[in-house]
Amino acid sequence: MxxxxxxxxxxPLDRLRQTCxxxxxxAGHKVTVYSFDVIPDLPDGVGNxxxxxxxxxxxxxxxxxxxxxxSWRDWTxxxxxxxxxxxLMAARAGLWLDADVLLLKPVEIDPARPYFAWExxxxxxxxxxxxxxxxxxxTAFEKLMTQDELTPxxxxxxxxxxxxxxxxxxxxxxxxxxxxxYGPAALTALAARFGELGHALPKxxxxxxxxxxxxxxxxxxxxxxxxxxxxxxxxxSGKGRSKQPPIPGSLFAWAAERFGPCAxx
Length: 265
Prior knowledge:
Elements: E1 5-8, H1 15-26, E2 31-35, E3 47-50, H2 76-90, E4 95-97, E5 101-103, E6 115-120, E7 123-130, H3 136-144, H4 157-168, H5 184-193, H6 214-217, H7 223-227, E8 233-235, H8 251-258
Parallel strand pairs: 1-2, 1-4, 2-3
Antiparallel strand pairs: 4-7, 5-8, 6-7
């Protein structure tokens, strides 16, 4: 049986995310998106679960205080999701895929072994992640979450120096110094500490276009990507381009058609 795919989302879904979620369904997985509010534009067949039961909304205040209107600030969503996925691992919820991972084939995992891939040289990605619930990486995050200041003991020297400068300016939040502090950098440091780097899949498995988004959004010959047996899926770093209509001849246009609302699940 294929693992259930789980993720977290906060806000409206754009066409890229809708396309990616449908691709995960078409691959044969059950897909559940956790959120604090109902997501009205969620693709048919994708489940929606209550995020509060996994990690309370109030936890975000320990990262960065909300705006006066209650909305989360800039990178709070990214950092919150880094903790949220670890909570899902502890709860045996399934395989985490970011909502912008286009799946080209089913993902099979060994429930007793970690599952992740290299995003680039010397850095693991956490857009695709499975960890057994008692994995030491999960335990390290659970221990960190008992702290008020959420200061990891795995901070690199350069991050410790940056944090020291922030403290001189009055900041007590280590979350202020770096957007991805609890994400790929944390996963890489902890996997190295606990001897788990050997589980990492090669970069092409999920990050073949991550650093080159034009290969997804601009017209090109993408047949080699689709035919490459090493490519399981594509994590898309869309930023503002994910909200634009697909350009004919692009991989995005192919995916939007292949995994559109009428795609066969």
